[in-house]
Design brief:
Chain lengths: 343, 343, 343, 343
C-alpha cells in the first residue's frame, strides 16, 4: 500500500474537527500528524472529545508549534477572519481545504458586506477554488486552496446550479426555506444553543440577513448567467445533524427531475429520488450523501424541490475530505463509503 | 358563583381530549360530566392518561351511553367522517364544538375532494360556523355548531385573512412553509411517529396534497374576494407541540405589520411582535397564544411573515374552549389564562 | 377579594425565576411588584424570556434599587454563597423563601464541607425552616425564612422520611439512583449543557460527590434517629424537566406502601400509586405533584421505591410558592392547581 | 483478496437488521446474498429503510424462498419463540448467529419461566455457545450456533463476570440500575414508544420482572460459582441509542478497577476508563465499544461501576458481527473499526 498522506487539522476542537477525525480514523490513505486548538493546546483530543479517546492521535498544539514541512494537506476549521492570515503564512507545498467562509466569496466587497471585515488575502483568494466537487471537480484536483462550501449553501446549490444552467427554473423567483440541526452553530457555549432553549422548540433566525446569502447569490448568478437574489430563511431544528432545504421555484417538475437525474446519474454522493418521493434528514445522517426530491406543486408551473444532507458531513467535513481526496490524487470517495446511521 | 356548564367530551382518549381535560380542570365555569372513548369504554381516564389520574372525572363510556339531556355543550374530538352522523344524532339543545374537519368546508364537493367521502349532513353544515373567533366572534356566539379550524390553517389564517381583506399582499403568490410537532399526528400507533423514526430527524410530508389546503383556499378566497390557491408544504418536527408557518408573500412589510397590529391590538390570544422580531414555538407552548412576526425580505416588495402557536391549544383544544366560552356566554378567555410553559 | 400580597423575585432571570412568574401569573392572591437580575437590570422580563412578554411585569432592576417597604415576601433565586449576605440585609418584615442551598444545612461545618464556603449568617440559619411542607407545615407557617429543599432531595425525602420515621426500611442500606432533566443545571451557558452535548445521550455526574448528599444525610438522619449515609448517584437526562429517583432499600413492600399511603392520604401534591404501578416524569410535568410507586424486588426483603416530580415545580418554584402560601396565610394550593402538561 | 463470505439476514426489517446492513455495507469480507422479512417479502430494503436505498441489496423474501446452499452464515434477527424451529430447519453447513433470546438460556425450565414458552430445540441449545466474545472467544470460533447476548445483559456481564470470577465484589448484593434508548424496543408500532409518549419523559418498566434477569442470573452464577440474583431495574431513555448501567456493589474500587483493567487490557471493544472517570452513552454511539468507569462510593466498601454501550451495536448487531467474524475465521474486528459518531 502507498504511504498515507500526512494531514494536519487546524482548529480541531470544534464539531467539524471531531468529524474530520471520525472520518480519517478509517480513511485508507490519510494519517493525522498534527492537530491544533489554541485554547486547548497541550490537551489530548480524548479529553476534549472522549468518544475519540481510544484513537492514537497527536496532542493538540498551537498552530505555531506545527512542523509543516512534512504536511501534505491541512484542513482549516478556524473561524472566518482568522483564516486569511493563517493560510497566507503556510508553506507553498501545503495544500489547504478551508472550512471557513474566508475564501468562498470571489469579490472583496461581497466579503466586506457579509462578514464585516476587510479581506486581507485577495491574492490567495484568486487561486482558491470553490469546493463543490460535483461542479468544480477538475479545478479542485489542481488547486492548492479549496474553499469548502457553506452547509446551507451546499443543499441549495446542488439542485439549483444544474437547474439554472439548464434554464429550467425561473431565476427571479426562488424561495429557499432551510432548516438546520444545532451542530451547525458550533460548540462554543451560548444561551441560544443550550439544550433547554432548543429542545421542544423551533424558530427562524437570520431572517433576510444570514451570511450564506452572499455565497448563494454568487454561485447561482454564475450558473444562471444573470443576477440571482434568492429568498432564503434559515431555521433551527431541535436535532443535532441535518440540513433540509424546501425550495419553491417556477418551472416544470418533469424538466426539473430530468435535469437533476441526468446531472447526478454518476455521482456517488448525490441521489435524486423518483418523482414525488420526499427525503428526510435521517436518511443522510452520518453519511456524505445529499438526497434530492422533486414534486409538482398544485399551481401549474410551480415546483417544490427538497434537498437534504448532514451538515457535518456533505455540509462540512465530509465535503472537505472529498475535496482533499481529489487534491491528493486519491479516490474521490476514499474514507467516505460508510452508510448513513439510522436510527 | 353561577352553576358551571355541563360538558361532554366525545373522543376523549386522544391528545386533544386530554388537552381539553387539562384546560377544563381549572376552568371556572365548566364541569366535565361525560367522556367517551369507544374502544376504551369502561376504563378510567387515569388509566389512559396517567397524568390526569388525580382528577375526579367520569368513567369513559360509549357515546350511546351518554345521557345528553343535561349536557350544555359537547366537544367532539372524533375522526372526520364519523362526526357527520354523530352530530346529526345529538339533541337540539346540545351545542357542539367539532374538532374534526367535518364541518369546516362549506361545499360538499370540496369535502369529497379533500377527504374522499360524501358529506352526509350538509343541512347541519349549513348552520355550522367556522371556528376562528378573531374573525367570526359574533357568529360563533350565536351558533349551535362550530367547526374548529385545522391546526395548520389557524397559523396561516390569523395573519393572512386581515392582509388579504386589506389587500396588502398579493393573493396570487403566497408560499406557506409549515412545520408541526408530532402531537398533530395523534396517538394511534403508526411506524412514522415512533420515537426512533422522528427524533433526530426532519422531513416534509403531504407535499402538494395535504388536506388542509381545501380549508386554506376556502377562507383565503373569502378574505381576498378572489380565488386563492396557496402553496403549502407541511413538515414534521422532532418535538411534541408547536406549529410554525413561515409565509413568503409580496407586499410591503410596513403595511403588513401595521395591518396586523391594528387587527389584533385588542386580542388576548394573538400577539404581533415589533418589526423584525422572530417568534419561536416555545414562546407559545402550552398556552392559547398565536405569535406573529414580520420582516421585509431582501428583494424589494417581498415580505416574510411568521406565525406560531401550540397545535394542541390555539390549534385545537384551546381554540375549542375559546369557541365554547363564546357559545356559552362566558368570558372568552375563561380557563385559558395560563402562561406558556418554558422550558 | 382581599388585597393581593406584594411579591419580589430576586434573581428572576434564571429558569426558576421564569417558573415563579409562570405560576404567579394566575395566582389569585399574589402580585409581582419587583424583579431583580443584576446583569440584566434595565431590561424587560419579556426580552429575557419572550414567552412572558405578554404579561404586565415590572422592569428588571438591581437588588439595591428595590423598595422593600411594601414587599410582603421575596423569593430568592440567587446562587448559593450570595444569598447569605443578601437575606441578612433585608428588612425584618419581609418574609423570604430561599431557593438556594444557603439555609438548608443546619450545621456550619456541613455547609463548609459541601459548598466550600464559610457560612456568614448562622444567626439567620437558626431561624430558617426547612421548606418541605408535607413534614414541616406548621413551622413553615410561622417562619420568616424558609429554605426550599433541593430538587433531588425532594424526590428522596418525600418517600424516605416517613419510611425511616416508621422504621420500615433499613437505614444502613439505601441506594438512590437519580436522574434529572437539564433545566436543573440552570441557564448559564456551559459546554456540558449545550443541545448537541446532551441530546441523544445520558450519563452520570457528581458520582459519590454531589452536594445534595449533605442535605440528604441531614434530613434522613433526623428521620431515622441515627446517622444515615445514602448512596446517591445523579444522572443527566436528555429532557428539560423531571427528576426520577429509583430507590433500592431493604424492607417489606407492603409495609412501605401502607406507610406511604397513610402519610400522604390527604396531601394535595403527593400521590402514592397502587402497588406495582410505575410513575413517569411526564405524569408530573409542569405540575406541583410528586408521584410515588412501590414494588417488591425479586429478592425477598428488598423493595424498589420510585419517586418523580418536575424539578422546576415541586423541586423548586412550585414548592417555593407552596411554602409562600403557608407563610402568607393563603390556601396552601393557591395558584398551584393546574394540571400536568402531557404531551 | 479472498472470496467474501455469503451472508443471509433473516428478519431484516427491524432496527437490528438495518444495523447489520449498515455494518456489512463496508465489511471487507462479507456479502449479503439473502434478506428475509415475511410481511415485507417482495419489497426492496430501500423501501423499508430509505437510508439504505443507495446500496445494491437483494430483495426481501420469505425465509422459505432462500436458497441456503450457498450461505455461509445467517444472522437471525427474528422474535424469540419463532427462532427455535427455524434454526432447527437450517442445513448443517450454515452457521448461525441468533440475536433472539431463544438459545441464551441453557436450561429449558429457565426459558419457560422467563419467556412463557416450551423450548422445542434443546438439542440445538446444547451446542449453542453464549455469544460474548470477550469471555467465550475460543468456543465461539468453533461454534455452529451462537446466541448473541441480550443488550442489557451485555452491559452488566462485561464488568461483572471478571469481578465475580476474581471474587472482588460481593455476589449477594448487586444492584443494576439500567437505562436504555428506545431502539431497544424495536420498530413495531406500539403506543408506549410513540415520539409524543417518550420524548421529554423518563420512566422505569419491567420492574422486578424483566426477562433479561434470567440471563443475568445464569451467567453471573457461573462466574461467581454460586447462585447470584441481581436486583435489575430497566428504564426507558428519551433517546435512540445507548444502554447505561449504573451498578452498585460491595468491594474495593481499587481492586475492581485493577481487575477490569487487567481483564480488558487487550480488548479492542472494551475500554476501562481511569479511576473516577464517568462514561456517557454518546461516547460509544454507533460504535462497537463498551466503556466502563469505576468510582468508590462515599460509604467505605461500596463501589459504583458504570458500563455503557450502543444497544444496536455491542448490544446487538455489532456484537453479532464480532461473533460472526470469529466463526468465519476472519479478523475479529473486521468491519467494526469505525469510530463513534458524536454529536
Amino acid at each position: 500500500m502507498a504511504q498515507p498522506k500526512n494531514i494536519a487539522i487546524l482548529g480541531a476542537s470544534g464539531y467539524t474537527g471531531a468529524e474530520l477525525v471520525r472520518i480519517i480514523a478509517t480513511h485508507p490513505s490519510m494519517k493525522i500528524v498534527a492537530m491544533t486548538a489554541d485554547r486547548k493546546a497541550g490537551q489530548t483530543m480524548g479529553s476534549v472529545f472522549p468518544h475519540l479517546a481510544y484513537l492514537d492521535l497527536p496532542l493538540l498544539t498551537k498552530i505555531e508549534e506545527v512542523d509543516f514541512s512534512a504536511i501534505d494537506l491541512a484542513f482549516c476549521a478556524l473561524p472566518h477572519g482568522v483564516t486569511h492570515g493563517l493560510v497566507k503564512s503556510l508553506p507553498e507545498h501545503v495544500k489547504v481545504v478551508d472550512l471557513s467562509a474566508d475564501f468562498r466569496l470571489r469579490n472583496a466587497a461581497d466579503y466586506k458586506k457579509w462578514y464585516g471585515l476587510e479581506h486581507t488575502a485577495m491574492d490567495i483568494q484568486a487561486e482558491a477554488v470553490y469546493g463543490l466537487p460535483e461542479f468544480y471537480r477538475a479545478e479542485i484536483a489542481k488547486a492548492r486552496i479549496v474553499a469548502n462550501t457553506g452547509c446551507y449553501v451546499a443543499t441549495g446549490l446542488l439542485p439549483l446550479i444544474p437547474l439554472l444552467r439548464a434554464g429550467v427554473v425561473d431565476p427571479t423567483d426562488i424561495v429557499i426555506d432551510a432548516k438546520s440541526g444545532v451542530t451547525g452553530a458550533g460548540r462554543s457555549p451560548k444561551e441560544g444553543i443550550l439544550f433547554s432553549e432548543v429542545s421542544e422548540g423551533f424558530q427562524a433566525y437570520g431572517v433576510a440577513s444570514h451570511r450564506h446569502m452572499g455565497e448563494f447569490d454568487q454561485e447561482l448568478s454564475l450558473a444562471a448567467g444573470t443576477d440571482v437574489t434568492v429568498s432564503f430563511t434559515p431555521h433551527l431544528l431541535p436535532q443535532n445533524r441535518g440540513i433540509y432545504s424546501t425550495i419553491y421555484a417556477k418551472g416544470s417538475a418533469e424538466a426539473v427531475l430530468e435535469t437533476l437525474q441526468k446531472q447526478f446519474a454518476n455521482e456517488r454522493f448525490v441521489h435524486v429520488l423518483p418523482m414525488g418521493e420526499v427525503p428526510a434528514t435521517r436518511h443522510a445522517r452520518g453519511s456524505n450523501m445529499c438526497l434530492i426530491g422533486v414534486k409538482a406543486d398544485r399551481t401549474p408551473g410551480r415546483v417544490i424541490i427538497i434537498s437534504t444532507l448532514d451538515n457535518l458531513m456533505k455540509g462540512a467535513s465530509g465535503q472537505a475530505v472529498q475535496n482533499a481526496n481529489l487534491m491528493l490524487g486519491l479516490q474521490e470517495a476514499a474514507g467516505l463509503e460508510f452508510a448513513p446511521m439510522f436510527p
